[in-house]
C-alpha cells in the first residue's frame, strides 16, 4: 500500500477542510445534474411489452405494481447461460435491499433478462434476491432498449450501446431504465443509463473510493475482475 506524506493533526485538518470545499462543490454539481436528469423529456411508449413471471404472463404496466414510477435493471442473463452476469449480480446485490425503501417513495423495481424463467428462478433462489425478476423472452423489450443484440447486429462488429455505435463483446449488456405511468395509465420512458452509469447503484464502489487503496483495480485484467457472486468469495461462508 502506498503511504502518502504524513502530517500533524493541524496540517491534516487544514487539508481536510480544503478537500471538504471541493466535496461540497461536487455535491452541488451532482444536485444540478440530478435536476437536469429529471427534466429530460419523456417518450410515450406505443408498443405493448409483456413478460414471463413466476405468476404467469405480465405486462410492463403490471411491473409498476400500482405505483407511478418503475426502475428496471437490465440484467445480463441470456437464454442457455449457466449463470447470470457476475457484474449484474453485483448490481442486484445492491438493488435488492432498496426495494422496500423505493416502494415507500412510489417506485417499483423489476429485473428483466432474456433467459427463460426456468433458468432465472434457480439462480435467483441460489443468491437469495427477493425481488421481482421477469423474462423478456419472446419480446422486443431488451432489443428496443439496446441491452440485447441480435446475431446480425453482432456480425457487423458494432452495436448501438450507451448512445453510440461501438464494438461490444457480448450479445447482452447491462443497464438501468426508468419509466413513469400517468393517471390515465399511459407509460413513458424517462431515462436509461449504461456502461459506468450503472455504478449509481453500486454502493460498494462509493465506499471503496473512501479507503486508502481505493478500488485497487489498476493491475487487474479488467476493472471488475475481482467481483464474484456473493456466495463465491473465499470469505463467503464466514461473512455475517
TrEMBL record:
Originating species: Horticoccus luteus
Superkingdom to which the source organism belongs: Bacteria
Organism classification: Bacteria, Pseudomonadati, Verrucomicrobiota, Opitutia, Opitutales
Entries under InterPro entries matching the protein: DUF899_thioredox, Thioredoxin-like_sf
Protein name from the UniProt record: DUF899 domain-containing protein
Amino acid at each position: 500500500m502506498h503511504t502518502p506524506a504524513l502530517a500533524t493533526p493541524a496540517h491534516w485538518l487544514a487539508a481536510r477542510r480544503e478537500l471538504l470545499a471541493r466535496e461540497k462543490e461536487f455535491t452541488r454539481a451532482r444536485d444540478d445534474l440530478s435536476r437536469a436528469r429529471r427534466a429530460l423529456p419523456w417518450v410515450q411508449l406505443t408498443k405493448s411489452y409483456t413478460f414471463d413471471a413466476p405468476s404467469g404472463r405480465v405486462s410492463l404496466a403490471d411491473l409498476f405494481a400500482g405505483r407511478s414510477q418503475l426502475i428496471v435493471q437490465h440484467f445480463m442473463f441470456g437464454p442457455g447461460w449457466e449463470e447470470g452476469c457476475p457484474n449484474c449480480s453485483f448490481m442486484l446485490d445492491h438493488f435488492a435491499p432498496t426495494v422496500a425503501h423505493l416502494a415507500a417513495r412510489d417506485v417499483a423495481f423489476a429485473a428483466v433478462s432474456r433467459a427463460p424463467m426456468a433458468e432465472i428462478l434457480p439462480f435467483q433462489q441460489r443468491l437469495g434476491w427477493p425481488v421481482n425478476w421477469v423474462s423478456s423472452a419472446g419480446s422486443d423489450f431488451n432489443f428496443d432498449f439496446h441491452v440485447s443484440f441480435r446475431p446480425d447486429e453482432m456480425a457487423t462488429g458494432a452495436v448501438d450501446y450507451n448512445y453510440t455505435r461501438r464494438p461490444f463483446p457480448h450479445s447482452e449488456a447491462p443497464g438501468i431504465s426508468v419509466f413513469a405511468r400517468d393517471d390515465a395509465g399511459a407509460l413513458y420512458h424517462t431515462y436509461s443509463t449504461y456502461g459506468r452509469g450503472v455504478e449509481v447503484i453500486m454502493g460498494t464502489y462509493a465506499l471503496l473510493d473512501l479507503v486508502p487503496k481505493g478500488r485497487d483495480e489498476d493491475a487487474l485484467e479488467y476493472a471488475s475482475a475481482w467481483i464474484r457472486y456473493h456466495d463465491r468469495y473465499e470469505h463467503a461462508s464466514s461473512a455475517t
